[in-house]
Structures are given as structure tokens and as C-alpha cells.
Amino acid sequence: MKEDRFGLARQTMAFVLAGGRGSRLKEMTDIRAKPAVYFGGKTRIIDFALSNAVNSGIRRIGVATQYKAHSLIRHIQRGWSFFRAERNESLDILPASQQLDENNWYKGTADAVTQNIKIIEGYGPKYVLILAGDHIYKQDYSLMIEQHVRSGAKVTVGCIAVPRDEARGFGVMAVDENDKILDFVEKPAEPPTMPGDPTKSLASMGIYVFEAEYLYEVLKRDAANPHSSNDFGSDIIPEIVASGGAQAHPFSRSCVMSGLETEPYWRDVGTIDAYWQANIDLTDFKPELDIYATDWPIWTYSELTPPAKFIHNEEGRRGQAVSSMVSGGCIISGSTLYRCLLFTGVRTHSYSQLEGVVALPYAEVGRRAYLKNVVIDRGVKIPPGLIVGEDAKSDAKRFRRSDNGICLITQDMIDKLEG
Asked: Boundaries of each Nucleotidyl transferase domain copy (predicted)?
């Protein structure tokens, strides 16, 4: 059956929706789209959806971009240029306002696909896999495609079990014992529960499988409807559910647990708190997401950097890191790190102390700084002696402080302090 799944994957084109801003990440998405936000020391968020597709055997991929896409496009060009046309492989970047007319931005998730139907048709896929480009997870899509073909459904929707109280922010479905979707409601006040478990609901992951010809038909009909918001969750999926043609695919059946994972792992890192927590969790002795497993690699653009370096060995001025992840090109100079995740090229200077710090590429921490529970944006220069994490009121005046006490620090915030 593995060969059958591989064959179906080769007949599938993945279409990644990567145009969203992710406004709940506040200043982190002022200059980049949410899928382009850094994650895990080396990767970007979008690398997980793209890697899942490649690892599942899919070799035709389109990425729809819109909001502040330069950082995302540059990353894809640098890190995902290994597709070869002579092997029937391709990765197309599909910016908004290019296909229909110069003023027509993507109006919704469905419209993003509609505007690119001609491009998709040009590759002649039999199936189309719609993906959200802004979640962290490992999944073998070939298993979901196989279920779709076997069931004969018009659409198969990837779903994950979440606590009922948290389901209000998702598209939620009611299913029968055979996973047929009976109802689909976008962000309901009273989410329907799972069969046999009243404490949980089935939330949509924003992953859909269609037969290509049927998808084109549905999208064209939706585009002609002046009352539609041209969105999969609000318009397309509820219509198919009403016709009785929608099937659910529980994430637990196709999640990849290739290393230390013991439970299906899926995260929406769309808030400062969730982003910080998911990154810091990677420093645990047994992290819930194992990014070290080599049988399901997360592909990315990897800069050429020297190894990380730890220098000085004096009392109070010792370069050391405990329960931390430190990327290439970092220099830990006489600093102490605990439960930190440092991206490429971060520099920390003597006598500084960092705890629970997520530092994006090329950030620099000055001497005698004390930082606790912070996210430092790319290239930020923390001035000597800065203290963050001891006085909540002071932190909130100077930086973006979350309800859970996580501070986001950008260069503009630092410049205002020094101005």
C-alpha cells in the first residue's frame, strides 16, 4: 500500500496558502508574513508544510503569497530551489494581483486558488491538496490523500481534537462514527463535540483534499456568487457538507512521530505567548516535537556559518548554556544561558544573563544585560545593562508585554529607549 500512496502523491499538487499577516504576533509580522516568521533555531514556519509535502512524495507545489511577502519569497528562493522540471517537479511562487488584473488581491482563501486555476490546470494534477502555511506539525499527507480516494468523498478535511473551550477560534465539525462530516461551523460560540467525548471538539486544520476537476467546478461557482466571501471555511466546505460529500481525516492517523514524540503534535504559533512557548519547549529534555529525527527532515535554507563558540572561563564571566539550543555562528562571550533558543549569528556579551530567551538571527545582547522570558526580533541590539523580566509595569511601558508576561523586543522599541 505504500507504493499506492506514493503514486497518489505524485498525482497531487499541493497549494500552500501563505498570504496571511498573522496580526496576533504584533510587531513580529510588521515586516514579514506569518509563514515567514522564524521558528526552532533554523527554520521558518512555512518549512513545516513544505517539508511535509516533499516527505509525503508530492513534487508539485504552489505557494500563494500576499502580505509583505519579500522575506518569504527570498527564503523560498534560497532554500527550496532544488526542484527539477526534468523530474516533473516544480515549486511556484504565486503572488496576489498577478493573474486576473492588477487590482485584484486575494479576497479569501478560496479566491487565492481560484485566481491560479489556469496555473494549476497547466500541471494536470488529478488531486489538489490545500494547505495552510502557518502551523507547526509533521504529517504524512499521502495517508490523507489515500483515505480521500478510498472514501469517494468530494472533499476530505484534516482535523484535530482540541478541548471544547479552545474550539471557538476554529472551524469545527460534527462527524458520525464513519468520519462523515454532518455539520461544519466557523468559529462557533457552542462548538459541537466529538462522538464519545463531550470534552473535545474536532477542529479544522485548514487542510483539504479535492479531486482537481471537482475543485475547479466548485471554485468557479463560488467566484460567480456575489454573496460569497470566497473562503474555504466560510463558504466552500459548508456547502459541500450540506450536500453530504465531506469526510473528516483525524490528524492522529497521519501525524509523524519519528523520534521522542508520544502524542500528535500540532501548534498554531499565532500569538506571542504560543510562539515563545513552542520555541522554548524545544529545549526540554524530551521535547513534544523532535526536530532531531532524520527520517522526516524539516527542509529549510541553511546559511553557511561557523560553529557556535563559547568563550571566557572566569567566575561570573563564563560562556555557558544549560538546557538551551544555540545555532551556528553564535558567540556566547562570558554569558550565562538557561532554557534559551538562539538562532543563527546571535552574540551575547560578558556578564549578561539570559533565561527563557528566544533570540532571532543576528540579535546582539550587550554586557550585563538581564533578560527573562523575552523574544528578541532579528538584528536587535540589546543595550548594555538592560533589565527585562523583573518589573512588569516597566516592561509593559517599554516593550510589547503579553498577558502571560512574555516581552517582545524590536529595534524600534530599543531606539525609543535610547532616543
From this structure: 14-283
